[in-house]
Amino acid sequence: MSLLIRNGRIVTAVDDYRADLFIEDEVVSLIGQSLDVEAERIIDAEGKLVIPGGVDPHTHMDMPFGGTNSADDFESGTRAAAFGGTTTIIDFAMQQKGRSTLEGLETWHAKAAGKASIDYGFHMIVTDMADERLWEMRRLADEGVTSYKMFMAYPDVLYVDDGTLFRAMRKAGDDGTLVCMHAENGIVIDEIVKLALAEGKTSPKYHALTRPTRMEAEGVHRAIAIAEVADAPVYIVHLSCADALEQVVLARDRGAWVYAETCPQYLFLDSSHYDHEDFEGAKYVMTPPLRERWNQDHLWRGLSFGDLHSIATDHCPFCFHDQKALGKDNFSKIPNGAPGVENRMSLVYNGGVAAGRLSLNKFVELTSTAPAKLFGLFPRKGTVAVGSDADLVIFDPERREVISAGNPHTHHMRVDYSAYEGFEVQGVCETVISRGRILVEDKAWLGRAGVGNYLKRGLFSGLS
Ligand code: URP
Ligand code: ZN
Ligand code: ZN
User: Fold this and answer.
1) Taking 90 as the threshold, does the pLDDT of residue 57 lie above it?
2) Whose Cα sits closest to atom 8 in ligand 1?
């Protein structure tokens, strides 16, 4: 289908101008003033922004965790992402300990195929990486999996030791790929958890109280130090607090090759959510946990000063009633994670641009361009340009809506609560387009499961 978008304000990470935009054969084929072209469909975007579709580099669809699976699969999760203006996700495939990473990749391809309605790529969660297996990292890169996630947290589950980290980082540095770090000292945290449980402290708030910010900062410091010695870049995922950010700033000031992401939950929610009665705090059991509110100013500063480079969701939803309840008597058994893939763009526009903390260009950079660059998808994704995939959002910067699990306009995730219940946001994704196909228009779903393509990503080339 050919599509002409007239009169929009096109905003990328660097541009801001009014023009018409013509889409043909899945890509943007012309941008100009008063374009004189025939199109099967014309949309008038007067008064609206035309921005690149969001790129969310951190989601967990259908992921086994804590004895259950995250509640969104690739069908419900990508559909919800599209409603929220995200047209690309990079999800985490997982290696089973002792098994091949390539087998893990096959499993995740099977989960996504026929289900995804937007384009998707995979990182690989590496749970062991013996010398004999190192060759698999290069094979993964050939398959378009050019980044890996490794965990300093969750001993006995996903945790890898420092030697494994170093080995994998050296190989990633040689191959031109990127290690993403869950940076928290899980060994010490597990000791603190044991002490709390022995004292009968079992409610959700102890999830946060047993994961001090110093243990995140220590993990960030150690991950960066190991990456420096391995001569490899490192990307810190879901950075939550000022303590950890300080380590990134110190490292970047000395020229270390480090990038970091934060997430809406750390920008908009805080540890007071764990004080809710009746186990409600379990809705916010995620790792790292929500922090004291004052941390948020530091994170916003990190985003605008360029020490934090992207905003991802870490979307990992578990239903309150039948999944979070697994930890009713023991907070350490509550599956970790929260929903959010649908809410990122509006939340960040509202709290960033409308609140005067971020420029429009920075908003686009953090939610689309930088993740596309860091993870080998730019300029196919992450910008509005001739030749780029026509992944676009027509965004109404004035319209407001209230996020709620009960609001059919804001909640398409397959989970029985919203982490942002009752938040009023200014800025709504009105029309969402993926490779020239309209997926969402006027809150109606026009997309189709299975048309999302797997994205073979390129090697790491930094942010420039
Ligand atoms: O609580 C979280 N973040 N769950 C998802 C797994 C992870 O650590 O990213
Ligand atoms: Zn993590
Ligand atoms: Zn995650």
Assistant:
1) yes
2) 287
Question: Is residue 379 within 8 Å of 369, Cβ to Cβ?
Answer: no
- With a 6 Å cutoff on the Cβ, whether 147 touches ligand 1 is no
Domain tally for the chain? Answer: 1
Instruction: Decide: 207 in ligand 1 pocket, CB within 6 A.
Output: no
- Assess whether pLDDT exceeds 90 at residue 277: no
The angle at the Cα of 144, spanning 136 to 167, to the nearest 5 degrees, equals 35
Q: Is residue 46 part of a domain?
A: no
Amino acid at 107: T
Residue 219 three-state SS: helix
pLDDT tens per residue across span 170-189: 999 999 999 999 999 999 99
pLDDT of 464 reads 81
The single residue listed with the structure tokens 């289908």 is 1
Whether 236 is covered by a domain: the verdict is yes
Q: 400 in a domain, yes or no?
A: no
- Asked whether 158 lines ligand 1 (CB < 6 A), one says no
Please report whether residue 460 resides in a domain: no
User: Which CATH number fits the domain that encloses residue 137?
Assistant: 3.20.20.140
Contact between 368 and 319 under an 8 Å Cβ cutoff? The reply is: no
What are the tokens at 413? 């995730």
Q: How confident is the model at residue 276 (pLDDT cuts 50, 70, 90)?
A: confident
Taking CA atoms, 429 is separated from 23, 180, 292, 400, in Å, by 19, 29, 30, 10
Supply the range of the domain harboring residue 319: 52-374
The pLDDT of 135-157, averaged and rounded, is 98
Among all bound ligands, the one having the nearest atom to the CA of 419 is 1
Relative to the alpha carbon of 285, which ligand is closest? Answer: 1
Calculate ∠ Cα 276-279-284, nearest 5°: 70
